[in-house]
Every structure is written in C-alpha cells, then in structure tokens.
C-alpha cells in the first residue's frame, strides 16, 4: 500500500511540475506580447512629434500603417507559437498515454 501512495505522490509532483513549466512558457509569451503592446502608444506619440515638427501628417499616417502591419505580423507569430506549443503539449500527453 505504501508503494502505491508514493507512486501517486510522485505522479502528482511530475504533473504539477510539467504544468508549471507549460504555464511559464505561455506566461513568457504573453509577457513579451504585452511589452510590445505597451510600446505601440510610445511609438505613435513619437511619430506625432516628428509629424508636428515637419508639419507633414503623412509621416504619422504612414508610420501608423507600417506599425499596424508589423504588429499584425508579430501578433500572428505569437498566436502561431502558442498554437504550436499547445499542440506539442497535447501531442506529448497523447504520446505518454499510448506508451
């Protein structure tokens, strides 16, 4: 009976350790994305200052379009990464169940 209790405790420990690693990976991705999102208003403000200095609104307009395009690319990469991580984790759990 004691062996079964020890095995259960070890399995729970391994499961909690694995889930903590998974959440830390997703947490770092989310943290990086939120840092990038925080820089967007700073960049727009900088573009406004340049636009006002030059008296030309095309700098601001073109900058916003370029920023949106780049942010969309980064956002898509983050979503792809999270999807790949989720499928790897699900595939890993299916693989361990089959073994």
Protein model, in words:
The chain has two helices and no strands. It is mostly helical and about 100 residues long. It has one domain. The longest helix has about 55 residues. The protein is elongated, with a radius of gyration of 23 Å. The two termini are about 25 Å apart.
pLDDT average, as an integer? Answer: 72
Give the strand content.
under 5%
- Percentage of helical residues? over 70%
- How many beta-strand elements? 0
Structural class determined from secondary elements: mainly alpha
What is the strand and helix layout of this fold?
Blueprint: H1 2-54, H2 57-98
Helix pairs in contact: 1-2
Briefly summarize what is shown.
With 99 residues, the chain is mainly α. The chain has helices at residues 2-54, 57-98.
